[in-house]
Amino acid sequence: MIDRYSRKQIASIWSLENKFKIWLDIEIAACEANAQLGVIPPQDLAIIKEKANFNVSRIEEIENQVHHDVIAFLTCVAEYVGPSSRYIHYGLTSSDIVDTALSIQMKQAGEIILNDIDQLLEVLKKLALKYKHTPCMGRSHGVHAEPTTFGTKMALYYHEFLRNRKRMQDAIDEISYGKL
User: Hey, is 134 helix, strand or coil?
Assistant: First the structure.
């Protein structure tokens, strides 16, 4: 993302640091599920949960050699975890991690946008009430038409954004499913 065009909250969601943190959370959750199934010994799960970590610079360094982002990530995590890392990513594909993380990131970004829409709705509602008797020129086909009120225009925008909010919420609900 280009910093000058990015909001800090949104940029942080799409940062490599956040992406790899989500990948690690997914990998640990998968290890916990595999431990419940008896695939991973409890002592190895404890080591994984205690030691699992990553370094973005190290992942980039490894990726320059192996040309595969998930392998670079797993290699880096294995450097922190040691021998118990053999259980990390067990039974998973790269797509399981990448697609699930992408769903989480899109949901995180969508929640910020929903919050922004809610703030806009509050402003539009206040304007609609404040200017409900303030006349202004209506428009039709790009030219002046019958008079209306500025409050009416704001109320129309308010209701339009209520519909937009519902569409955004529906989109978030739809994308909130990953492979895992």
Answer: coil
Give the angle subtended at the CA of 9 by the CAs of 167 and 155, to the nearest 5°. Answer: 40
Which pair of tokens denotes residue 120? Answer: 């806009």
Intra-chain end-to-end CA distance of the chain, in Å: 27
Q: Supply the pTM of this predicted model.
A: 0.89
Q: In angstroms, rounded to a whole number, what is the distance separating the alpha carbons of residues 154 and 163?
A: 14
pLDDT at site 3: 84
**What would the pLDDT profile of 1-20 be if each residue is shown by its tens digit?**
888 899 999 999 999 999 99
How many angstroms from the chain centroid is the CA of residue 42? 31
| Alpha-carbon span 70 to 22, nearest angstrom | 12
3-92 CATH, one of 3.30.300.20, 2.40.240.50, 3.40.30.10, 1.10.275.10: 1.10.275.10
106 Cβ neighbours under 8 A, 6+ residues apart: 172, 175
Distance from C-alpha of 143 to C-alpha of 137, rounded to nearest angstrom: 9
